[in-house]
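Reopening closed ticket. The problem is back. First fold of the pair:
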Amino acid sequence: MAQTNILLEAGTNELEVVEFYLDEATPPSVGEGMENVEADPQAPAGAGFYRGYYGVNVAKVLEIIRMPKVTELPEVQHPSVLGAFNLRSRIIPLVDLAMWLGKTHTQTDEQPKTIVTEFNNVTTAFMVSGVNRIHRISWEKVEQPNKYVAAVSNNTVIGVVKLEERIVFLLDLEKVVANLNPKLGLRLDDLGEDWDNTGYRALVADDSALVREMQRDLLEKAGFTVEVVENGREAWERLEDFKRRAEEGNRPITDFVHVMVSDIEMPVMDGLNLTHRIKTDPMLKQLPVVLFSSLITDKLRHKGESVGADDQISKPEVTQLAKRAMALIRDRERAQTETA
C-alpha cells in the first residue's frame, strides 16, 4: 500500500482513514448510532446479510495484502487469533476482526483482505471482508461515539464519521491488541523514586477515559496538579483561558500550567494541530509539549518534530511520562534563569 500519509502535512488537523468493511450473516437490532448496519446494496445478496463499515488511521497501516497462509499457534488467548504468518521474515499474528467483535461471518465468493498494522511498536494483522479506499478528512468531522455506541461496541469505537452517505466507525485496534495480550497494554509501574515536586501543573488531553485517568494517577503520584480534557479543542480553549487570565493579571503563564501532555488521535482537534497552535503562539510557545501516543514510531516521529513537540512518548512507556515531563519543565526553568 502506498504510504500516502507521508504527503499529509502535520498540524493541519487532518487524518487519512483506511475504510474497510465486515460482512455479517445475522444483523443486530438497529438502534441509535447504528445506522451503518442497515441493508447495503453492495452487500452479498440474501436475507439477513448486511455490510458494516469501519476505519483505521492510515498512519497505523503498514500494508494491505491478500489472505496469507496461516500457521496455527499452540496456545491462543482468544479464538479470534487465527495464527501467524511470515511476511518478509517477520512473524505476524493474524486476528479475525469480525470474530473478535462477536460477528457471524457470511459466506461469499469474495476473498478476505488482511490489514497489517503497526502501533505501540507492535505489528499485528487483522482479517476483514474487504477494503474500500483511503479518505482524507478533518478531525472536526469525527464525532465522539455516543453512550449507546460505546456500550454495544465494548468501547472499541473511538470515533464516528459520515463518508459518502455511510456511517463509518473508527475502531480502537489498540484496545483489541491489549485485550488479546494484556502485556502490551498500558500499566502503571512503581515510579521508583522520591519526587521533589513543588506543585507543577499539567494539562492532559486524551479521548480515552481510561488513559486520561491513568495519566492523572501517574502524574499526581509524582506531585503534579492535573487537569484533564477529552480532545485538542478543549485543551486549546483551556490554554486560551489561561492566557487571558495571565494577561489580565500581568502574571506568567506558569502560574496556570507548566506542561501540556497530549494524545495525537482525537476527535475535533488532534494533538499535532494543538501542538502547532501552542508553538506558534507568542505567549504559549515556551510551554513544554509532550505527545503521548501509540503513533510515536521511528517512521512517524518526524510529524511531532515538525510541529515543535518537545518530547514524544509511546503509550506503553507510561511510567516515563512524569520523569520526562518534569525534566522538560526544569530545563525550561534553568534556561529562563540564565536568560534573566
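Second fold of the pair, where the issue appears:
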Amino acid sequence: MSMTHHAEPAVTTPPAPGPKETDGRTARRPLALRLLARPEVGVFLGAVAVYVFFLITAPPVREAGSMANILYQSSTIGIMALPVALLMIGGEFDLSSGVAVITSALTASMLSYQLTANVWVGVVVALAVSLGIGFLNGWMVVKTGLPSFLITLGTFLILQGVNLAVTKLVTTNVATDDISDMDGFDQAKKIFASSFDIGGVEVKITIFYWLAFAALATWVLLRTRYGNWIFAVGGNKESARAVGVPVTFTKISLFMLVGFGAWFIGMHQLFTFNTVQSGEGVGQELIYISAAVIGGCLLTGGAGSAIGPVFGAFMFGMVQQGIVYAGWNPDWFKAFLGVMLLGAVLINLWVSRTATRR
C-alpha cells in the first residue's frame, strides 16, 4: 500500500507590523543621550546653575554693567584656556602657561623702555619670544619622549626665576617702568586693551576676541585636517603616525599656540596697567587647565571641544566676580574653584557613562 504525499504550496504570511529589530550596534540612541555625549553639555548646564545661583544670591549680578565685568574676567581666562584645551585634546598640557604670560609682557615692556623705542618693537619681539618658548616646550616633549608635565614644570620654574631676576637687574625693582607715554602706546592699547560703549555699558574688547577665537578654534577642530590631527595624536600618537599624521608638527604647533595665547594676554595686561609685576602669573596655569577640564577636555587626550572651555571660563569669571558682588570673603574663591573642578569631573564621568549605556 502506497501513500502519496502531496506537497502543499507554502503560504507566506506577511509579518505583523511592529518596531524594527536592531542588533544594538545600529540602534539610534535617544536625543537626550546623544546630547549628553557632547563634552560641552555638562559644563553648559553647570554654567547655567552657577549663573542662576549668583543671580539669586548676589543682586548686583542682575545689572548689565556687572555682567560686562563678569564676561571681561571670563575672557582673560578663556582666551588662554582655548589653546590650553587644544593642547590637552592633543594629549599634552603646559604648566608654564601662567608665567609665560608675564614673560611676554615683561619682554615687551622692558625692551621698549630700555631701548626708548616704539612699543611695537617690544610687542613683536615678545611674540617671537613667546612662540620660541612654545616651540622649545614642544620640541623637547617630542624629541625626549618625557611627559609634558615634567618638561613644562621645568620651564615654569625657569621662567619664574628669570622673570624676577631679569626685572630686578634691569629696572632695580620687581615691576617694570610705566610705558604709557611712549610712541605707539595708544595704538597698541586700542588693539589689546580698549573698550566700547554699548547701551551705556563699557564692554572690553577682549570679550570679542574671546568669542572670535572660540569660533575659530571650533571651526579648526571640526572642519579642518589639522583638527583631525589634533584628535588623532591625542588619542594614540603611534597609530596617528602610522596613518600619516605629522605628529611632531602637530604637537609642536599646539605648544606654540599656547605661546601665542600667552603673548596676547600678556599684551592685554601690559597695555591695561602700563606696567607689569614680575612675580605675577604663578597659579594661573592651573586655572587655565581647570577651565579646559571643566569644559570636557580629558587629561588623557583625544577628547574635548573648544566650546566647553568657553563655558568653563565663564564659570570661573562668574564665581570670581559673583563672590565679590555677594559681599562674601574673596578668600573663598579658590575653594569654590576646587569644588567646581571636582564637581565637573564627576559630572563629566556620569554624563559619559550615561551617554554610552545601552
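Update: turned out to be a display glitch only; the data is intact. Strands lie at 195-198, 201-204. Residues 247-273 form the longest helix (27 residues). Please close again.
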